[in-house]
């Protein structure tokens, strides 16, 4: 598979992960919408119906009582009150019909409450009609008082049943609201969890692709060194189905051609010199290609971040981009250097730190360097570069909040025979005293610890006085 296809496949997988997170969020949003629709179209209309039923019954009772206290000699007022009773009855019947329909459809377990309200309502309607009839007949004061006593009793019972119904519906509303809020919290948690998992998977994919690219390049480099020493029995066995395999075939053919030309020493020497020259050109081309490929990855991350609104994901992509840029800068320095195995570490640190300052736009932070010009190999250079990148990034992000001014100082020097001392110090607000850099969940600090101890096989020391300082002592290679 061609290198471009490998990179494309990696980005497709990352895109699928992002799409999966979006799908989880979409499903969660649909579920939350369903929960709130149930509240909006089921519970709230029933509560509204109960309030309207209560108001209608109170209106019936009030206007009926007004009729009882109105003189038969005032026909206009009697007529108006009768019309108000009829209007309240119509409103009650319409509202109760809707309430009964909604309750039977969505909450059939509340039939008992509906039944009580219906019985009370029918009794109030009946008694209202009987009281008005008795009033119109005249000379029925005793019967009116008896009916009125029953009328008031049923009204109290009715209002109690209505309040019970409202209490039940409000409890249902609170329960559904709590369920909806819990669902939203679950959605947020799942999104964060899957986002973190996707980030880890994306890092693993990146490391896998990087390894698939760097491993054969290392083989080519080692084999070319063997050939440069005159070991023409070396055969490069690379089966990557890409341009690097084509390059290994070219190397093997070159070795074969050299072996067949050993009969003439002069020709052999000329061919060896030519092959060494070709080796340098090819290695420079390899470093140049690796640097270009890493810049492509960095550019794609930048383009991806422009389409993302989530600040957390933008920060993650920016951190990944800075890590890639620090490794790409190594390869740039290598193919620009006269020595393909070592770089000018002072120049490399200066360029990388300047890039980070520009990336975060920290004009309030000053950079100081005390770097001895010791040549350093690519393995140690990449490792030290990543460590410096992570620690400077942490300082720029967290050590100088709210525009606080400060200084970051980088020190690199020899402290013994092939023993080096690397220090990154800032005079910012410092890190929490209870933070254990070996147990923290911070990817950056975890990466620094792993690189210092497992790659450089060095000792890492954290000093928390007047800011934060990381010291690493390690053997050179």
Structural write-up:
By secondary structure, this protein is an alpha+beta fold. It has ten helices and seven strands. It has helices at residues 3-69, 75-106, 111-137, 141-228, 243-259, 265-306, 311-336, 345-360, 378-399, 443-455; strands at 342-344, 365-371, 375-377, 406-416, 419-426, 459-463, 468-475. It starts with a helix and ends with a strand.
> How confident overall, as mean pLDDT?
80
Please describe the biggest sheet, giving its number of strands, its sense, and whether it closes into a barrel.
5 strands, mixed
> What fraction, in percent, of the residue positions are helical?
over 70%
Put simply, the count of helices is 10
What distinguishing features does this structure have?
477 residues; alpha+beta; Four Helix Bundle (Hemerythrin (Met), subunit A); Heat Shock Protein 90; five-stranded mixed β-sheet; two-stranded antiparallel sheet; 7 strands; kinase
In short:
This protein is of the alpha+beta class. The protein contains ten helices and seven strands.
Write the layout of secondary structure elements.
Blueprint: H1 3-69, H2 75-106, H3 111-137, H4 141-228, H5 243-259, H6 265-306, H7 311-336, E1 342-344, H8 345-360, E2 365-371, E3 375-377, H9 378-399, E4 406-416, E5 419-426, H10 443-455, E6 459-463, E7 468-475
Parallel strand pairs: 2-4
Antiparallel strand pairs: 1-3, 4-5, 5-7, 6-7
Helix pairs in contact: 1-2, 1-3, 1-4, 2-3, 3-4, 4-5, 4-6, 6-7, 7-8, 7-9, 8-9, 9-10
């Amino acid at each position: 598979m061609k290198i471009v296809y490998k990179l494309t496949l990696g980005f497709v997988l990352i895109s699928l992960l992002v799409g999966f997170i979006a799908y989880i969020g979409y499903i969660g949003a649909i579920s939350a919408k369903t929960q709130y629709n149930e509240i909006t179209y089921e519970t709230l209309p029933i509560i509204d119906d109960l309030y309207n039923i209560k108001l209608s019954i109170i209106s019936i009772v009030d206007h009926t009582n007004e009729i009882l206290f109105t003189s038969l000699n005032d026909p206009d007022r009697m007529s108006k009150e009768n019309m108000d009773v009829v209007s309240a009855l119509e409103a009650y019947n319409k509202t109760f019909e809707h309430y009964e329909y909604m309750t039977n459809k969505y909450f059939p377990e509340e039939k008992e409450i509906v039944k009580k309200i219906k019985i009370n309502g029918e009794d109030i309607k009946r008694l209202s009609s009987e009281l008005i009839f008795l009033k119109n007949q005249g000379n029925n004061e005793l019967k009116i008082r008896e009916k009125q006593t029953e009328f008031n009793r049923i009204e109290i019972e009715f209002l109690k049943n209505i309040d019970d119904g409202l209490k039940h519906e409000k409890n249902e509303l609170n329960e559904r609201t709590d369920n909806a809020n819990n669902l939203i919290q679950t959605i947020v948690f799942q999104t964060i969890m899957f986002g973190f998992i996707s980030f880890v998977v994306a890092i693993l994919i990146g490391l896998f692709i990087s390894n698939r690219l760097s491993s054969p390049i290392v083989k080519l480099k080692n084999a070319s060194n063997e050939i440069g020493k005159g070991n023409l029995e070396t055969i490069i066995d690379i089966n990557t189905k890409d341009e690097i395999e084509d390059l290994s075939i070219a190397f093997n053919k070159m070795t074969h051609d050299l072996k067949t030309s050993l009969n003439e020493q002069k020709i052999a020497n000329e061919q060896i010199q030519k092959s060494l020259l070709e080796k340098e050109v090819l290695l420079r081309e390899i470093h140049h290609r690796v640097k270009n490929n890493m810049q492509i990855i960095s550019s794609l991350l930048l383009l991806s971040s422009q389409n993302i609104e989530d600040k957390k994901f933008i920060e993650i992509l920016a951190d990944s981009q800075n890590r890639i840029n620090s490794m790409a800068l190594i390869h740039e320095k290598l193919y620009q250097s006269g020595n393909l195995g070592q770089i000018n570490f002072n120049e490399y640190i200066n360029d990388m730190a300047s890039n980070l300052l520009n990336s975060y736009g920290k004009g309030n932070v000053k950079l100081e360097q005390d770097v001895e010009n010791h040549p350093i190999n690519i393995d140690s250079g990449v490792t030290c570069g990543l460590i410096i990148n992570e620690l400077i990034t942490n300082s720029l992000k967290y050590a100088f909040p709210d525009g606080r001014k400060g200084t970051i100082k980088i020190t690199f020097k020899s402290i013994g025979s092939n023993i080096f001392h690397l220090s990154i110090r800032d005079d910012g607000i410092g890190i929490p005293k209870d933070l254990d850099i070996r147990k923290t969940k911070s990817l950056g600090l975890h990466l620094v610890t792993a690189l210092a101890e497992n790659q450089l096989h060095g000792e890492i020391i954290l000093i928390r006085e007047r800011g934060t300082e990381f010291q690493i002592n390690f053997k050179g290679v």
